[in-house]
């Protein structure tokens, strides 16, 4: 009985995770890197607007696996990613920010691998630092990229 309840709880959590609304990127462009008849591997550049900091957009480039598995969405994309965040409009922060917060995540494989973008507040320098990395359920990757957006004069980052 306990196993059935555990399995049902696990399954419900898993379905909720898959059904949860995710912040989707806007694909800006892509280039092919490895030709395949069934769909080429490519590098994409995607834009993510920071949901808590109006006026900041992060551009993430990452490898995407093509072929049949890539087309079906079951391929595992490589861990490499690069990030550049920029002020694209006047910056507005409506509520205090956590010192460190996972602001974007997107699956890189059907279940096990996720790309993360973390926002870190450097209050001393009045700067937002963005870090991208990937993880797996069992192991992560040390491959990462970092960028920073300094606040304009007169704008102070409110921190929780």
TrEMBL record:
The keyword Signal applies. Residues 1-25 form the signal peptide. It comes from the Bacteria. Keywords: Signal. The keyword Membrane does not apply. Pfam families: CreA (PF05981). One of its GO terms (cellular component) is cytosol. PANTHER family: PROTEIN CREA (PTHR37952:SF2), PTHR37952. This is Conserved uncharacterized protein CreA.
């Amino acid at each position: 009985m306990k196993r059935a309840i555990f399995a049902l709880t696990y399954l419900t959590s898993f379905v909720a995770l898959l059904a949860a609304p995710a912040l989707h990127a806007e694909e800006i462009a892509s280039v092919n890197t490895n030709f395949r008849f069934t769909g080429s591997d490519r590098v994409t550049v995607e834009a993510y607007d920071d949901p808590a900091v109006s006026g900041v957009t992060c551009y993430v480039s990452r490898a995407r696996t093509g072929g049949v598995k890539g087309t079906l969405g079951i391929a595992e994309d490589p861990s490499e990613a690069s990030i550049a965040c920029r002020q694209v409009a006047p910056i507005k922060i409506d509520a205090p920010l956590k010192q460190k917060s996972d602001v974007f995540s997107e699956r890189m494989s059907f279940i096990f691998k996720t790309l993360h973008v973390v926002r870190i507040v450097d209050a001393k320098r009045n700067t937002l630092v963005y870090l991208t990395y990937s993880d797996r359920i069992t192991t992560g990757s040390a491959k990462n990229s970092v960028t920073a957006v300094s606040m304009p004069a007169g704008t102070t980052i409110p921190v929780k």
